[in-house]
Amino acid sequence: MSLNSTTLSHPPYFLLMGIPGLQKEQFWIAFPFCMMYTIAMLGNITLLLIIKAEPSLREPMYLFLAMLASTDLVLSTSVAPKMLGVFWLGLKEIEFQSCLTQMFFIHTFSIVESGVLMAMALDHYFAICWPLRHSSILSVPVVVALGSLVLMRGVFLVSSVCFLLHRMPFCHHHIISHSYCDHMAVVKLACGDIRFHVIYGLLVAFTVIGCDIILISASYIMILRVILGLPSTEARLKAFNTCASHVCVILGFYVPALFTFVTHRFGQSIPPHIHIMVANLYLLVSPMLNPIVYGVRTKKLRDRVVLFFQQKGN
Predict the structure, then answer these.
(1) 18: Cβ–Cβ under 8 A, 6 or more apart, which residues?
(2) Average pLDDT over the chain, rounded to whole?
(3) Who contacts 100 (Cβ-Cβ below 8 Å, separation ≥6)?
(4) I need a surface site. Which of 33, 112, 129, 291 has the fewest CB within 10 A?
């Protein structure tokens, strides 16, 4: 009984090793990561303050942008402070419950971000392909309902995994070769049968990301057809320019996310430090770039940002 309770129990804490193979260098690697997190915080908070303060920005596009900014704040804050503590201060210990909590927020809001990007693509589709019906199709209640469904999807899919993982037995080995509590990194430390977690993770990733990417791709294919049919070259270039920035944001999120997901399960030949670096960047680069891309590329929002800082300066 004593052996059983010792062997098959939750460890009081895990040890986050940071970036395997780069333990000496990660002190310096933390500086650009900290800069990314700082820019993400300042940029997304600024966007939220401007959208909240300006009544004319109560349009679907800006409401979705506010959802994206909120998601980015939660996503980057879920990983960056603890990661910087590991890199700079050697604070590798993380309690079991805290680890599951971090895992919940990281994976839930990764799914939410995917859903918000999909919703924004649909918004662009209706705005360009059905401009006269855009406001009636995507009214404020519809936008709020869509955002709520996206959030509920993430919470439901990830909370069930965390609940099942909480009930699993863990062995003495409690070292996580990662800089945060990734789902598969924690699952691999369990003593029991982990096949369900592996299969469930695959199903969720391919179902959620696959459906979102299909809808995003279909939206932009339809948008492209409309753009190519525009009579004015200047109008075509302007539309292409806007869509190109949105596509870059989407690729900046999905490419490293898919690389991280596939590498964790099938990329045994890829060096661990490359996998961990990409996994860290994917949670920080998108939150940093999103407010810059949308804030700079959207004229109405850019003008409000300039006015906001002028008022603060005075």
Answers:
(1) 26, 83, 86, 87, 92, 179, 276
(2) 84
(3) 162, 165, 166, 181, 186
(4) 129
Question: DSSP assignment, residue 56?
Answer: G
Distances (CA, A) of 114 to 7, 39, 56, 135, 255: 38, 21, 26, 23, 12
Q: Shortest CA distance to 153 belongs to which of 202, 204, 220?
A: 204
- Per the DSSP assignment, residues forming a β-bridge with 170 are 9, 190
Q: How would you label 177-191 residue by residue, b for 16+ Cβ within 10 Å and e otherwise?
A: bbbbbbbbbbbebbe
Q: 312 by DSSP, 3-state: which?
A: helix
The widest CA-to-CA distance across the chain, in whole angstroms, is 79
Q: How far apart are CA 65 and CA 123, in angstroms?
A: 11
Please state which of the ranges 38-52, 145-159, 181-195 shows the lowest mean pLDDT: 181-195
Residue 120: closest CA among 288, 225, 253, 280:
253
Residue range 255-261: average pLDDT?
80
261 or 215, higher pLDDT? 215
Query: What pLDDT, in 10s, does the model give residues 137-162?
Result: 888 899 999 999 999 999 999 998 88
Stretch 260-270: mean pLDDT, rounded?
70
Alpha-carbon distances, residue 275 vs 37, 198, 263, 269 (angstroms):
20, 18, 7, 10
Burial of 214 (0-12, 13-18, 19+ CB in 10 A): exposed
Torsion of CA 279, 281, 287, 289, to 10 degrees: -140
- Residue 66 near residue 148 (C-beta atoms within 8 A): no
Q: Where does the pLDDT of residue 72 fall: very low under 50, low under 70, confident under 90, or very high at 90 and above?
A: very high
Q: d(Cα 117, Cα 245) in Å, to the nearest integer? A: 13
CA 155, 251, 67, 132 torsion: positive or negative? negative
